[in-house]
Design a protein that fits this description.
CATH architecture of one domain: 2-Layer Sandwich
Strand order of the largest sheet: 3-8-6-7
CATH class of one domain: Alpha Beta
C-alpha cells in the first residue's frame, strides 16, 4: 500500500525592508503614454488641511477637521493573495489617531465624552471638501474615515447607527469635517 507523504507549504517570505509602492495614474489629459513612478520614501503622503472652523462641539460631541482620506483604490493592497490595508491607509489612520488624541487632550470633558460615546448609539456626519466635484465619490472615504475616527477614540464603529454624508468643492483647501454625536441628540 502506498502512503502519501504530507505536503508542506513554505511560509511566505517577509521582506526585511519596506518596499516602494508603485503608483500609476490612468488619467491622461494629454493623451501621452502613461508613466509609472516609484514613490519616494520620504515624500509626504497627505497634505494637512489648514485650520477651518468646525461646527461647535458640545460636551457630548466630537467635531474635527481631518485630511481627505486616500481613494478606495489606494486604501487596500493585495499581498500574496490577501487583501490588506495599504501603507497609505495605515498612514491615514495613524494621522487621524494623532489628531483625535490632540482634540481629546484639549477637551475639559474628555472622561464624560468618552463614557457617553462608548455607551450610546452614535450618529456620524462627514462633510467632504474635494478639489473637484467629479474626481471622487462621496462614499469612497466613509469606511476609512469612520474606522480611523473610532479607533482614535477607542470605540467600536458598530455603535454608529446613523450616517450623513455631504459633498462640497473647495479647490484651495480639500478636507473633511467630521462630527460624531450620540444618535439621540443629533
Amino acid at each position: 500500500m502506498l502512503t502519501r507523504m504530507p505536503t508542506f507549504r513554505r511560509p511566505p517570505r517577509i521582506p526585511s525592508s519596506p518596499r516602494a509602492v508603485r503608483m500609476t495614474s490612468y488619467r491622461n489629459p494629454d493623451k501621452k503614454a502613461v508613466v509609472s513612478r516609484i514613490a519616494p520614501k520620504a515624500a509626504p503622503i497627505f497634505r494637512m488641511p489648514s485650520p477651518s472652523p468646525c461646527p461647535p462641539a458640545g460636551t457630548h460631541t466630537v467635531a474635527l477637521t481631518l485630511p481627505v482620506p486616500p481613494s478606495v483604490n489606494h486604501q487596500y493592497a493585495t499581498v500574496n493573495g490577501r487583501r490588506l490595508i495599504s501603507s497609505a491607509g495605515r498612514a491615514y489612520k495613524a494621522q487621524v489617531g494623532q489628531l483625535v488624541w490632540l482634540k481629546l487632550a484639549q477637551s475639559t470633558h474628555r472622561a464624560a465624552l468618552l463614557a457617553r460615546l462608548q455607551s450610546e448609539w452614535l450618529a456620524l456626519s462627514i462633510r467632504f471638501y474635494f478639489t473637484s466635484a467629479l474626481r471622487r465619490d462621496v462614499d469612497g472615504g466613509l469606511k476609512i474615515a469612520q474606522d480611523a475616527l473610532c479607533e482614535g477614540l477607542g470605540i467600536n464603529d458598530n455603535r454608529i447607527v446613523e450616517t450623513h454624508l455631504y459633498k462640497h468643492v473647495d479647490k484651495d483647501n480639500p478636507r473633511i469635517e467630521v462630527r460624531l454625536t450620540p444618535a439621540s441628540s443629533s
